[in-house]
What we know:
This protein is 10% helix and 39% strand. It is mostly beta strands.
Amino acid sequence: MIDENWLIKTNVGDVKPYEEALKFYDRAEDVSGRTSAAGPNTKQIDYFGTDKYIQLLTNFIIKNIDDPRIDRSAITIPWGTHTWTVEGQDRSYHILHRHGKPEVRCNKNLATVLYLNVPKQGGEFYFILEKNTGIEPHIIKPEVGDLFLFPWSVYHGVYPQGPGLRKTVNMDYNYTGNGYLLSEW
Length: 185
């Protein structure tokens, strides 16, 4: 039996605390054109800050993970972690990608995507789960406040969007828990 990938979707409700937390970072760098965020109207900003502010944003995110299969106390911030936002406008998208080393089929480290803004048309989040029975493609039309949590090894992206702002805040984490029984997802 192989390990399986999974995705948890929840909604955090009010996104203002997350937007406010971004203001406290020490440095922001525009890395547009050097990432999987693509399209003529796409911008990716990497944020760097003190552990205090990274932990603040992390606490906001972790408190909203309400799944008994995840030990929230085992979610830790890897050394050198930064936060990033992706902002898309008309015709922007995110190419299919994953985090971590490509040779690792299933990974315990966690990626998060939190939607602060969504366009009215397009911009669906898509992902591929590798299961014992094969691969399963999925599509979700996100709403403001949607938080996705998944292993680094889940391939994911965003379809081209229509007019309006799509903005996400993203962080990656180490997961040091006793593990989760992936076949139960």
